[in-house]
Amino acid sequence: MAQVPPLPFGPAAGGLPGVPDQLSVETTVDQERAIAQPGVKSDELAGAPELGFWRLAVIRFFHHRVATGALLILGVIVLAAVVVPVITGGLYSIQDYRHPYKAPFQNWQHILGTDDLGRDELARLLRGARVSLMVGILAVVGYLLIGGGLGALAGYYGGWLDNALMRFTDIIISMPFLLVVIAVTAATGGVRLSTVIIVIAATGWFEIGRLMRAQFLVLREQEFVQAARALGASNTRIILRHILPNALAPIIVSATLGVSGIILLEAALGFLGYSIPPPEPSWGNMLSDFEQYLLSDHTYLVIFPATALVITALAINLVGDGIRDALDPRQR
Questions:
Q1: Domain for residue 77, yes or no?
Q2: What is the DSSP string of 59-95?
Q3: Within a domain: residue 117?
Q4: Confidence band, pLDDT 50/70/90 cuts, at residue 331
């Protein structure tokens, strides 16, 4: 009986033309991994556990050189604002009444000079950094609590609740912010740090709220949510355990970039006289007398807080860009 020749395709012939079999696919992947990591055997890589989404995001972020450098600069600013006053023991808070408008870089006691009342400019910058960063972080927390909570409820339940919350959001958007600040200031009898934070958080959460609503509208129709609902999971468990973790990536990016906007907003309010009142320094009220400083040829009292404000806002924006690229699954 004549022997049947082997077919020109199939496992014996290497698979269909142009279509590798499973073994060749695995071999190709292992070879690529071995090329990417010299000195590591392919079988070791094949048995290694897969990295999770958040761990891969951290790795991608630290490969972003600009964002990593901005994070280091931001860390230096935060440490200087928190640690330096404690280490120096109040050395930079000494008020020298005998030497107002002392030029910077003359001695170590007042390295950045003094203002019109002899107050140390470096101490005021560090104290202003505390105030600005505190306002930015706490107001963003308010954004997340108010906007995130309302957006999640509107996106998950929909219907009349969605319509009601979105119309309420439209009302908040249409409110003139500065008039709200003036009205709250007049009603509370003066400007306080807590007042500024509450007003900013209560009037600026709508962007995160809309973003959270959009994420929930998409995710609530996914198969894993339908499976959890079919298995009898409660709405609270579905929202907190299944949908919210998958909706966090764009929310984190928006919140990070929001800190920069809030710091600039607080500086604008301080410049107009509706933020922290003197003698408590903030970068905004340190710039409120810029015209007087420029006309009297004391420009360093304008340059230092303006530079600190720009560098901090730029560093936060660059960190936010790095987080956005790291959390984007399309980035490589």
A1: yes
A2: HHHHT-HHHHHHHHHHHHHHHHHHHHHHHHTTGGG--
A3: no
A4: low
Side-chain half-sphere exposure of 263, counting CA atoms within 13 A: 28
**Lowest mean pLDDT across 46-55, 135-144, 274-283:** 46-55
State the Cα–Cα distance between residues 271 and 152, nearest whole angstrom: 36
Is residue 73 situated within a structural domain?
yes
Count how many domains the chain has: 1
Per-residue pLDDT at 50: 65
- Partners of residue 114 on adjacent β-strands: 120
CA dist list (Å): 238 to 226, 244, 255, 284:
10, 8, 23, 44
Neighbours of 273 (CB within 10 A): 13
pLDDT in tens, 41-65: 444 444 445 667 778 888 888 888 9
Q: Nearest 5°: phi and psi at 204?
A: -120, 10
Report pTM: 0.75
Q: Is the residue at 294 inside a domain?
A: yes
Secondary structure of residue 114 in the 3-state scheme: strand
Domain containing 222 — which CATH number? Answer: 1.10.3720.10
